[in-house]
Amino acid sequence: MSNRDKKLDLICMGRVAVDLYGQQIGARLEDEATFAKYLGGSSGNVAYGTARLGLSSSMLARVGDEHMGRFLREELTRVGVDTSNLITDPERLTALVILGLKDEDTFPLIFYRDNCADMAITPEDVKEDYIASARALAITGTHLSNPQTREAVLTALNYARRNDVKRALDIDYRPVLWGLTSPGDGETRFIPSSEVTAKLQAVLGHFDLIVGTEEEFHIAGGSTDTITALRAVREHSAATLVCKRGPLGCAVFEGDIPNDLDDGINIIGVQVQVMNVLGAGDAFMSGLLRGYLNGEGWQKACSYANACGALVVSRHGCAPAMPSAEELDDYLRRTELVPRPDLDKRLQHLHRVTTRDRGWQELNILAFDHRSQLEKMSIEANADLTQLPILKNLILRAAQESREELNLQGKIGVFIDGTYGQSALNEISGQGWWVARPIELPGSRPLRLEHGNIGSQLVSWPIEQIVKCLVFYHPDDTAEMRLEQENLVREVYQACCQSGHDLLLEVILPTDKPRSDEHYIRTLTRFYHLGIKPDWWKLPPLNAVSWERIEKLVNEYDPHCHGIVILGLDASMEALENGFNQAANSKMVKGFAVGRSIFSEPSKAWLSGDISDDEVVTRIKSNYCHLVNTWNKRAL
Q1: Of all helices (H) and strands (E), which one includes residue 86?
Q2: DSSP labels, 313-374
Q3: pLDDT at 313
Q4: CATH topology (fold) of 3-354
Q5: What is the three-class DSSP state of 434?
Q6: Of the candidates 334, 320, 330, 328, which has an alpha carbon nearest to the alpha carbon of residue 289?
């Protein structure tokens, strides 16, 4: 099979685990109070990182038949990694790693890998046709430490050789995983061992590319003198050797080893402030493989590798810190201007928007995050407020039934509040719906948040929930009013950037001010000038010319914006139909987010006791389905 016919660029075989990173930077691991959960393991990180960079990557490993195993599978799938050969082990648990960030030189970590799933891979798990379907196979050194995994690796390498598959080794030396330290000492990076050296040297001849730090080449070559170690490796392998030199970059050796590292092909590294060295090697390997497999030459491949490593060491975590191709290319164009990638607003934004889970091409959103309006309905109907959570669940049921009847999978969304809708929020979480949740104090002007500080709120929110912030804003407000509202919206935006939640900014002009499409265009322009780039906008119906201008505006300031949804404001169905038609030609308008026009009358009747649960669901569903059909028929 020629490279042109191969469906995969890369198969990664080795460790895949869950990383639990301490969130209190500067604390001892003993004192960490909370942890962030990420995909980890060197091979898992490389599969993830190369997929983000645009390669067609696949994962060959095992995970446990439990929540952490499913998490790893879903994370890999989310970035486009093929998981057809990621085997679910029915008997073993997924490996865990617990890590801390004490300072730039101290990174305590503990590997929980006793009889773990990824170390249970067997030669029978490796299929020749699968290996043959890739251009390259990447192995990490840990799997050479155990007789069973070693045999599986050798099986894969033999299949690769027979089928013209490039073979790459990341030495990835972890003494604790070779049994050279106490189980709790995962931090030690180098211990000399003639036994480990012998086991590595026995397989070096299988590879076309070998990558490691100076210390990793020391263990592979059996000497703590780097040149001597490289020459020993060369005696066992004709592979291209890439020696990582930290901030100095890396050196490439294709033939004989010279007398000095500087006499190799040296590509200078990128200088950045270090937050976390853990995972930097996996990022380096990901960038290197991008250039290597795309045939871009060692200068370009190593530039990618050095920059990927620099970006990851400046961030928390490893897999989530991996750059996208667009982000990496932007960074390489201006590395000298970005000494702190973690503080560069352009890079921060590109990382945020080019690594998001998914896009939504169309949205039919049933909004029932209303609080004050439903409280008023309850009072008028002499109903107890305890009925409102029940009503919210019934509205959700109407949306769920509509989804099935209208085949709205991947196109349906809801706005649900946490005040009366927490039960509905809990039910719909994890179901693949578009879900937004409000934070504003209903009716507040100037803007106030319903439950206080935004950062303390988002800590407990599922990451899939989109932050919806409604602001009653007018570009001709007094300077005092504008600044107060703008500062709070900026704070909300920055909190979402930090937490990873998407932000939907809903803008409504106050009723006591002049209202026109032009005022909305000026408002969006103002927020963009402030550096606020919401993932979504929610706006009222505008005319076709205004939508065209807004689309141009959004594409100028944030071409990665997910889009706009049209709000309802309790408008009639006729008014909504006209609004939909005006937006028919706008690619930026993805759908509608309408509430009271759909649920208001049925809800009043239910709160008054005039109709049953089933009837309120039927009526809401009928109104919602009618609006979906109206949206689908929109035309100028």
Answers
A1: strand 86-89
A2: HTSSSSGGGPPPHHHHHHHHHSGGG-S-GGG-HHHHHHHHHHS-S---S-EEEEEE--SHHH
A3: 84
A4: UDP-N-acetylmuramoyl-L-alanine:D-glutamate ligase (3.40.1190)
A5: strand
A6: 328
Q: Cβ distance 20 to 99 under 8 Å?
A: yes
Q: Show the tokens assigned to 225.
A: 């003198």
Q: Tell which residue, 413, 428, 435, 410, has the closest CA to residue 364.
A: 413
Residue with tokens 């896009």, as numbered in its chain: 359
For residue 197, give the 3-state DSSP assignment: helix
> CA 398, 403, 408: angle at the middle one, nearest 5?
150
Indicate the residue type of 328. Answer: L
The C-alpha atoms of residue 608 and residue 616 are separated, in whole angstroms, by: 12
Of the candidates 325, 299, 312, the residue with the CA atom closest to the CA atom of residue 272 = 312
Q: How many helices (H) and strands (E) does the chain have?
A: 21, 21
Q: Give this prediction's pTM.
A: 0.93
Helix (H, G, I), strand (E, B), or coil: what is residue 440?
A: strand
- Residues sharing a CB contact under 8 Å with residue 7, sequence separation 6 or more, in sequence order: 56, 133, 134
Q: Give the dihedral of Cα atoms 295, 298, 303, 308; nearest 10 deg.
A: 70
Mean pLDDT per 10-residue interval, the chain, length 636 residues: 82 96 88 93 97 98 98 97 98 94 79 94 97 97 94 98 97 93 89 96 98 97 97 98 92 96 88 72 96 96 94 84 95 89 91 89 96 96 96 98 95 97 95 96 96 91 96 97 98 95 97 96 98 98 97 97 93 90 95 95 97 98 96 78
Spans of all domains in the chain: 3-354, 363-632
CA distance 45 to 170: 12
Q: What 3-state class would DSSP assign to 60?
A: strand
Cβ(115)–Cβ(91) below 8 Å: no
What is the C-alpha to C-alpha distance for residues 539 and 506, in angstroms, rounded to an integer? 6
Written as one letter, the residue type at 123 is P
- Please, which residues have CB within 8 angstroms of residue 176's CB and are 6 or more apart in sequence? 111, 182, 183, 185, 186, 188
Catalogue the long-range contacts made by 253-258 (C-beta closer than 8 Å, 24 or more residues apart).
257/227, 257/230, 257/231, 258/227
363-632: which CATH topology?
Answer: TIM Barrel (3.20.20)
The closest alpha carbon to 249, from 289, 324, 305, belongs to 305
**What is the rounded distance in angstroms from the CA atom of residue 523 to the CA atom of residue 529?**
10
Residues 6+ apart with CB under 8 A from 110: 29, 97, 98, 99, 183, 184, 186
**Paired tokens of 558:** 């944030």
Q: Which pLDDT value is given to residue 636?
A: 46
